[in-house]
Amino acid sequence: MIAVKKTANMKPVFAKILEDIENQVFCTRITDGPYFATEFHFHKECQINYVLESEGKRIIGDSVGHFTSDELTLLGSDLPHVWYNDRDYAKSITLFFDPDRVLSILSQFGPACKFETLFKAAKRGIKYSGTTKTAISKLLLDIPGQEGITKIISLLNILEILTQAENVEFLASNGYTNSYHAKDNDRVDRVFKFVFSNFAGDIQLEEAAAIANMHKHAFCRYFKERTRRTFVQFVNEVRIGHACKLIAEGETNVSSLAYDCGYNSLSNFNKFFRKIKGMSPRNYMNELNG
């Protein structure tokens, strides 16, 4: 069962981060409590997020994946996202910055093309590892205790390192664009929460459609238009993602994996695992273990 704080509104809303702070270029926010913000949302500001302690499932654009402690991501402007933590503790530090204001400042000192390229790439969401993650996480953790020019220098150092990063993984698909609008209600979000909480059991399309208060065929069109995948594809991605998490934690019994992830048929589990990961569960285990 996923630990999700109940809120009245779960639609991907447009959030205002820096608008109420006059002339603010960037700010940091520390989360230290039972939950991350559970509202599926997007905002103009770019966001660098470092998870200090937690694990669970996240949605970034059209990417559905698992996150753990020590994860560093960069999200571009207007990229919908949410982190659902599996346990009742969530600690992270997040840096928000206005890309237009940053570019305006940097362009006064010379060409800012590499930063424009970075911010454009960030519209897919980027996950960092290796030396880049180590360097950025240290700089992020130092910022809350800094003031004035020292704080600004830290931001510039972070951006410079990100432009040179090599150990990167793009999260949303190539060409992804935000298809959510203010007129959208919370239908997709209720379905996300339902699937994350029940993927180990038998999930029926009709049940998901009912949760969204829609007829089955209308729901199928609605869900695919907004997530770029069918509902069945989404459920299988969540299940196989959970299987990969269990394998990383040491599970080696393929039959147990299938059952724990909601598959009553071992052949179906193997089929969807191969389709999504490009290899069999056994080969995935071997590759993970070197």
Automatic annotation (TrEMBL):
PANTHER family named in the record: ARAC-FAMILY TRANSCRIPTIONAL REGULATOR (PTHR43280), TRANSCRIPTIONAL REGULATOR MTLR (PTHR43280:SF27)
Domain HTH araC/xylS-type: 189-287
Gene Ontology MF terms: DNA-binding transcription factor activity; sequence-specific DNA binding
Protein name, entry field: HTH araC/xylS-type domain-containing protein
Source taxon at top rank: Bacteria
PROSITE patterns (alphabetical): HTH_ARAC_FAMILY_1, HTH_ARAC_FAMILY_2
Keywords from the UniProt entry: DNA-binding, Transcription, Transcription regulation
UniProt cross-references to Pfam families, sorted A to Z: HTH_18 (PF12833)
Keyword Lipoprotein: no
InterPro entries: Homeodomain-like_sf, HTH_AraC, HTH_AraC-typ_CS, RmlC_Cupin_sf, Tscrpt_reg_AraC-type_HTH
Coiled-coil residue spans: none
Biological source species: Flavihumibacter solisilvae
Gene3D superfamilies in the record: Homeodomain-like
